[in-house]
Specification:
This protein is an all-alpha fold. It has 10 helices and no strands. Helix 2 runs antiparallel to helix 3, helix 4 runs parallel beside helix 6 and helix 8 runs parallel beside helix 10. It is elongated. The N terminus is likely disordered.
């Protein structure tokens, strides 16, 4: 019990001294709402370049997860203006593309998804972007193109999630068109 009190007191002093570390701890512990407050507090001070970039990325991701796509997009755009490292740039562009997709800004989303499909260093993220390109065709009622893209993903992807998503979307397109 005493050990618990010491740890809690140490955590309180850490959170007062470094809101970024507390935000990261809360974020990775699953306490997203509290982490959001600490990231915002951190950005209100004098954030370092790298940690400031990560705080902006996390806030964008939190808002994206909460389906506040316009707000997430603002954080992602702020981050990209700060010239983050290459990996964070790729992740931010993927988040940005997903938000644009959800906000039905399909032309902008398509440009980013194409870029991600060819340049993201993570193969799974490349396949995820390709699945979204198929979804874009589906949303724009270009079912033939959507099915072709998704069929290629299903046939060639080694990423099980991408294959499963592609199959599910193909099934969904077929069911929707058979009931018309």
């Amino acid at each position: 019990k005493i050990f618990e009190i010491i740890i809690n007191n140490d955590r309180k002093s850490i959170s007062l001294l470094n809101p970024f570390l507390e935000a990261e701890h809360l974020y990775h512990s699953g306490d997203i709402e509290k982490s959001q407050l600490f990231y915002q507090d951190y950005l209100g001070g004098k954030p370092s370049h790298d940690r400031g970039n990560m705080a902006l990325y996390r806030l964008g991701a939190i808002h994206e997860q909460n389906r506040s796509f316009a707000t997430a997009l603002r954080y992602y755009k702020m981050l990209l203006r700060r010239s983050p490292n290459l990996l964070l740039t790729h992740e931010t562009k993927l988040g940005q593309a997903k938000c644009l997709f959800e906000l039905e800004q399909y032309d902008e989303a398509e440009k980013l998804f194409k870029e991600i499909a060819y340049s993201h260093p993570d193969v799974n993220k490349k396949w995820e972007a390709r699945v979204y390109l198929g979804k874009l065709d589906q949303k724009q009622l270009d079912h033939k193109n959507a099915i072709e893209k998704l069929k290629a993903i299903y046939s060639h992807s080694e990423a099980k999630d991408a294959r499963n998503q592609a199959k599910d979307i193909i099934d969904q397109i077929i069911k929707q068109n058979l009931t018309k």
